[in-house]
Amino acid sequence: MMALLQRVRRSSVEIDGRVNGEIGAGLLVLLCAEHGDSEAQADKMLAKILKLRVFNDAAGKMNRSVQDIDGCGTAGGLLVVSQFTLAADTSRGNRPGFSAAARPDVGRRLYEYFVAKARLAHTVVQTGEFGADMQVHLSNDGPVTIPLRIPPSA
What we know:
- By secondary structure, the chain is an alpha/beta fold.
- It contains two helices and eight strands, in the order βββαβββαββ.
- It has one domain: D-tyrosyl-trna(Tyr) Deacylase, Chain: A, CATH 3.50.80.10.
- α1 packs across α2.
């Protein structure tokens, strides 16, 4: 399973002109399931994301997690968006291949599992819509962009 995290001051996702999910300070999580992934990878990915220290403390050092930052009395938000294109293979030619991405039915199941687990573990979780044509808006904070990968064998 792969994710691209972007630390944001705010982020939203629109589908057909309507806002589907929106957060203030927190993490935009672009999430991709790969062949061989299971709930085990989703669990490990969520645990890593929730504990990853990418937010500044009072001294300006990245020592705080999304669970540690204050967004109006709550933890920072997570905006989780399915993103199969993270599995792009660009090693041959100029057109990316996506054969490493999980089949759509498996990708949807793991995305929905990840979101459900995130909502149990974290107070502010918003989403895109699996398979939809989405417009993602963000104000990248820093900018801080972190790639994560939990291999299928993990």
